Every structure is written in C-alpha cells, then in structure tokens.
Amino acid sequence: MIYLDHQATTPLAPEAREAMLPWLSGPESMGFANPHSMHRAGRAAAAAVEVAREQVAALLPRGGRVIFTSGATEALNQAIRTLPHEAIAVSAIEHSAVVNAAVATGAELHELPVSADGLVDPEVELPAGIGLVAVMQVNNEIGTVQPVARLAERAHEAGALFLCDAVQGAGKLAPPEGADLIAITAHKLYGPKGIGALWVRDGVKVGPLIHGGGQESGLRSGTLSPALCAGFGAAAALAAARMEADFQHLSGLAELARGILGRWTVNGSESARWPGNLSLRLEGLNFPRLLSDCREVMFSAGSACGSGTGAPSRVLTAIGLDPKQARNSIRLGFGRYTTREEVETACRAIDAAATAQGV
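Given the sequence above, the corresponding structure tokens read:
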C-alpha cells in the first residue's frame, strides 16, 4: 500500500519509537513510574518529561511555555475557552476544533473571509472590540500558508490576542512569530498520537480546562505519560534537524505529482502552500468510486475529521467552489518517508482510474 494521507496523520518516526521504549518497559526498569511521584523512579520519569518539553519548545518562539495536552483539539479549547472574550474572529477555513470551541464560549463570532487562493487578506478589517483572532498557519485541507505574522500584528493593533493552529506547520516551517497562543500535536510531525501542546506567550494567562490534581503548574490536570512525552520530544528534535531536507524532498514530490496530474486543477494558491499537501479537482470525478478503484493508495477527499458527513467541505466552499466542484476534489499528502516511486505509481493509478470514469 502507498500512504498519501499525511495531513490526517504521519507514521511514527523510528527515532520517536526508540525514545518511547524505555518508558513502556516492565517493572524491571521502573520506566512505568508516575512522573508526578517524588521517589527516585518518579523523578527519573519527570526528568524525561522536562527534556521532551525543551525539545518541543525549540520548535516554537522564544518567550513562552509549553503545556502538554492530549492533542491540538484540547490545546485549542484551552486557549479559546479559558480566556474571557466578548468577540472572537476566526478565518473561514479554520479547523472545526477552533470554530466549535469559539461557538461554545458564547462570544460573538466573526468570520474572516479568504480569497479564491485560500488566503486571508493580511490587511483584513478586524471588527471593533475583538478579543481573540484565530488563524491557522497551514490549512489542513488545501495546504495554503497564511500570513500569520502580519495578522498577529493586526490583532495586537486591535487590542486582541492572536491564536495560531500550527498543527500542519510545526516542525516543517518556521514558527508563527507574533502569536500569543499556539497549538500543535505530535502525530502530525511523526510523533505518537495522544499528546499535543499549547504554547503560551509569557504574560498571557490561560486557565485550566481540565481540573484535578493540578499537574502542569495547575493548568492541565492528569498524569502525564513519559512515553508519549519522550516520543513527542524526539519527533520534534528530529523535525528541527531535518526541516530543510524535508522541505526539499516534499517539493520534489509535489513537482513530480503535478507533472503527472497536469490536467487536474489545484485548489488554493499554487505558490503560498506547503508542498506536502496537494489538493486537486477534476470535473465530473466520482470520489468514492476513485477511492474504491485505487485501493492500494491511501488518500482522501479532504479533512479526515469531516469525512463521512456527506456535506461539501467548508474549506472548499469558502474558496468559492460549488458543492459539485468540492465533491470532485481529492487531497494527496506526502511525507518524509514517501518515495518518488510511490508518488509516480500512485498518481498514475489515480489518473488512470479517473480516465476510466470518463473524466
């Protein structure tokens, strides 16, 4: 099988797996110890957690702290729901974790439109009285890279905080400077599922979303998993070391795919995009049939979180596609371990299957 769905999740890096193993071992090594215990084994586990925290923090701006969470959804909810806001502005292509968390606050919600290229205008007018602006770094469905640095400046000029969902960009692009709050997750950068982080700029005071024993300085109760933390940290350190090499590799794969699928139309900007994400459409395409005919290729129509709803993609609708065009779309997600041979084989199979449909 050929895996081309790296926006949904990434395979666990061997280095991350190796970092996790000592903390998954049996009683002989005490690797299972609770990192919040004061005895020797607990202190060793706590030390591993703090090493991981530093490794994750190295992917993010200076002048902030990392709070470990169960993933980006929790991190985004903590950022949005524990700070008082009378009005929140979100881009029209934000992840549902942002949109639904904002709705849950009861605050007045404003949507920032995007262009046909899938980009927020960096000079977009922000509503008066706005308290929080949320714009993602890289869109998970169409791969567009947003002008978050300028948008953060605009938010601050309006007296608002700036939240960035950096799930798709963390460890792949430079961190979103100027942000006050950043959410990331391990499994999108070759780490384990079940752990993420909220980065909070110094001076910004979030509150706890989960109450209990007061772990994570009282901001996120619950026993941390040293294994998950270690895997996250190792994946983050590897991503930092390989950032340029990964970018060049994915750029080459995207160029190869576009050469084979030249008759397909790209959704979103062709230039302001992450090369590991290729969102394409072909008029008249039947996606379920295409997926069935290409069973050895793992790809998607869009967000894994929104699959199965039957509704057209909110992101594709926001860039001006009608429901039919949205349903004629596919998303190919390339990764660090994807080979050129896999991309060529997969793209030729997809194009041949589309041709067999008469499109």
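Residues 5 and 164 are 23 Å apart (CA to CA). Try to locate this feature in the token string yourself.
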